Amino acid sequence: MLNQRLEVTVRNARPSDAPALARIFRESWRLAYTGILPANHLEHEIQRRDATWWRRAIAAEHNLLVVEHGEHIAGYATCGRARGGRRDTGEIYELYLAPIYQGIGIGEYLFEACRATLDRLGLERLIVWALVENERARAFYVRCGGRATRKACVRFGNAVNARIAYEW
């Protein structure tokens, strides 16, 4: 068996990353949410988050991280103070990898970089929300040590989906 090391780097996003982030968003959302979200809502979100949208997000978002595998951007994450949560709680808002990079350990690097970012902000607790039907995401957060603590509903277009909070 070949012993290969992952060449992984996590850094802050740059404006030049925008086309890659648009592609990763499109590919990862289609893989994760086809059959879960209404098709028209899914396609609307994908079209909305084009390279122009990502350039604006990079300029405005201080905690938008990208993970690189060698020379290629493999995924991204955003994190910060939890929405509607306790003052000591941080949240990972989004964490997505291009499908080709899923399941090989790169997501854990990105997850830990988010945790380090939240630690630097003085946030002691962490919450992440995942749709109940997104079994890949739920399994990932369990592998990272999260425990399911509560459920809520979220609306996507005309559909209502259940989501689960994982906390550390």
TrEMBL record:
It comes from the Bacteria. Pfam families: Acetyltransf_1. InterPro entries: Acyl_CoA_acyltransferase, Bact_Acetyltransf, GNAT_dom. Gene3D superfamilies: 3.40.630.30. SUPFAM superfamilies: Acyl-CoA N-acyltransferases (Nat). Keywords: Acyltransferase, Transferase. Residues 8-168 form the N-acetyltransferase domain. Coiled coil: none annotated. GO terms for molecular function: acyltransferase activity, transferring groups other than amino-acyl groups. This is GCN5-related N-acetyltransferase.
